[in-house]
Amino acid sequence: MKKNQIYSNLCAKKAEGKKSFGLLIDPDKVDEEKLEKLISLSVNAQVDYFLVGGSLVISDFLDECVKSLKKNTDIPVILFPGNSSQITHYADALLYLSLISGRNPDLLIGQHVISAPVVRRSGLEVISTGYMVIDGGAPTTVSYISNATPLPADKDEVAMCTAMAGEMLGLKVIYMDAGSGARRAITEHMIQRVSKSIDVPLIVGGGITDPEKAYLNCKNGADLIIVGNAIEKDPSLITEMAAAIHSVSLV
User: Fold this and answer.
1) Three-state DSSP class for 226?
2) What's the alpha-carbon Rg for the chain, to the nearest Å?
3) Contact by Cβ (8 Å): 44, 17
4) For residue 127, what are the β-bridge partners?
5) Could you give the CA distance from residue 131 to residue 129 in angstroms, rounded to a whole number?
6) Can you tell me the distance from the alpha carbon of 196 to that of 61, in angstroms, rounded to the nearest whole number?
7) How much is the pLDDT for 251?
């Protein structure tokens, strides 16, 4: 895979108005049998990206999970790490997350200093990402582990200015996340305000439990929708989610 190909493709899709669907896979929550089913459904639904990672990842299945995805599909595999230990060179790219919604210096730059040599040696395509955790109405593992208060769900201006600051600092994408198991997803109004304020690709995830919500998020400016928890409960949603997201590109 060519250098920066995944990011270049994401930017090209954004320029063309094409929306993408990323399936989030937590290595702690799958085994070989479940992974085989997810792969089959994803290939048939033309899922655009696999994201692999979790807030903790306590199993030893990360390497094997990524290798299986690479062996059985041509879908790009992007690491979405919960900490600096969740890195494997078998993937294609890494979302290098800087938690710009919080004020915890360890997750703004501290963990990056520690992981930088490993990341450089890995050969992964590194996509610097402004990570914004939005209040989803329930405590999440992300907010607990990060020791950072999420952005208020009704403060569109704060989210907009945070995203703009991240872009001006040179971050390549903005990722707005309500967190796994969120009681409410990020509002379309907030997504629209943030999308209109930045030029870089916008990723949205957390609390997206049905195809209609995914569709509306895309209509309001999300370029890449990430779904994990809902599909863990009902893998058949992959087909409907993909169809809803990709249909926006055709309108």
Assistant:
1) strand
2) 16
3) no
4) 95
5) 6
6) 39
7) 63
Side chain identity at 179, as an amino acid letter? G
Task: State whether residue 236 is helix, strand or coil.
Answer: coil
- What is the C-alpha to C-alpha distance for residues 147 and 153, in angstroms, rounded to an integer? 18
Number of Cβ within a 10 Å radius of residue 160: 18
- pLDDT tens digits, 163-191: 999 999 999 999 999 987 788 999 999 99
Distance CA 118, CA 1 (A): 20
Q: What are the structural domains, with CATH classification, of the chain?
A: 5-246 (3.20.20.390)
Q: Which helix (H) or strand (E) holds 215?
A: helix 211-219
Tell me the pTM: 0.95
Question: Which tokens hold the place of 42?
Answer: 């994803």
HEC string of 2-30 equals: CCCHHHHHHHHHHHHCCCEEEEEECHHHC
Distance CA 122, CA 89 (A): 5
Tokens of residue 147, six digits:
């020791």
DSSP 79: E
**Quick one: which of 6, 78, 20, 7 has its CA closest to 218?**
20
The more confident residue out of 139 and 215 is 215
Element (H, E) at 225: strand 224-227
State the chain's mean pLDDT as an integer: 93
Q: Are 61 and 77 in contact (CB under 8 A)?
A: no
What the block records as the tokens of 189 is 């109004």
| Phi, psi for 227 (deg, rounded to 5) | -130, 135
User: 113 in helix, strand or coil?
Assistant: helix
